[in-house]
Write a structure and sequence with these properties.
By secondary structure, the protein is an alpha+beta fold. The protein is built from 8 helices and 16 strands. Among the domains are: about 80 residues, Classic Zinc Finger (Double Stranded RNA Binding Domain, 2-Layer Sandwich), CATH 3.30.160; about 55 residues, 2-Layer Sandwich (Double Stranded RNA Binding Domain).
């Protein structure tokens, strides 16, 4: 029988008969379960529900030894005997008949992900997922039409050229330098702040207000500025 009612023990090959039968069901739930709060619309629905409280498996598969308590469970089981496998694994050739079977299969990939590595043939890129490698490979196939005006660097994006130029070629000119150490900076305020770090260690010229961190600097100063007192 092609059409089977899930509430009553009704079966038919005719779709119009099946629809007519459905009208006979009342919306009033008048068949309560004696073991829980469930209330069924018809005796057949109640009998189907009662199997949840027992070990009775009244629905049998005609193709194997499988038995189910509910018809819906049997219907899901019958998919196993179907040759159609619509659920494909994105990592290998596996295909499953049911989505839960595919989920179980995907666990095998997650457990072995660390052991499997996909390498790019054109650079040092590597990943544990083939899908990521495919996306990465597209970066090598794009035409690099933008070039740096200073060196041989090329890119598919103008923004990359600007970033490259700023990071590589536009290094700031450190024209402010400390006379007491090797510190250099491109900003005068930074140098001023740095000089303060030497203030407590400075040596003073005995003849003027000149100070320096190194004694040799003070001696050199005296020879140049106060030669008659050296």
């Amino acid at each position: 029988n092609k059409y089977q009612c899930l509430q009553w023990d009704y079966k038919t090959h005719n779709s119009s008969h099946f629809k007519r039968h459905g009208i006979t069901h009342s919306e009033i739930r008048s068949h309560p379960c004696s073991k829980c709060d469930f209330v069924a619309r018809c005796p057949a629905s109640l009998r189907n529900h009662l199997t949840l409280h027992t070990n009775e498996r009244r629905y049998s598969c005609k193709k194997c030894n499988y038995k189910a308590k509910q018809y819906s469970h049997l219907r899901n089981h019958l998919l196993i005997h179907n040759s159609i496998k619509p659920h494909a694994c994105p990592h290998c050739d596996y295909r499953g008949k049911r989505i839960d079977a595919l989920r179980n299969h995907l666990l095998s990939h997650s457990n072995n992900a660390a052991a499997e590595t996909y390498l790019c043939e054109d650079c040092d890129y590597k990943t544990s997922k083939m899908a990521n490698l495919r996306s990465h490979r597209l970066t090598h196939s794009r035409i690099k039409s933008f070039s740096c005006s200073i060196c041989d660097y090329k890119s598919s994006y103008r923004s990359d050229i600007s970033r490259h130029t700023n990071n590589v070629h536009n290094k700031p000119d450190k024209r402010f330098f400390c006379t007491d150490c090797n510190y250099k900076t491109s900003r005068a305020d930074h140098l001023k702040a740095h000089v303060k770090t030497h203030s407590s260690l400075r040596k003073k010229c005995p003849h003027c207000e000149y100070k320096a961190v190194k004694s040799i600097s003070v001696r050199t100063h005296i020879k140049k500025i106060h030669p008659d007192k050296s």
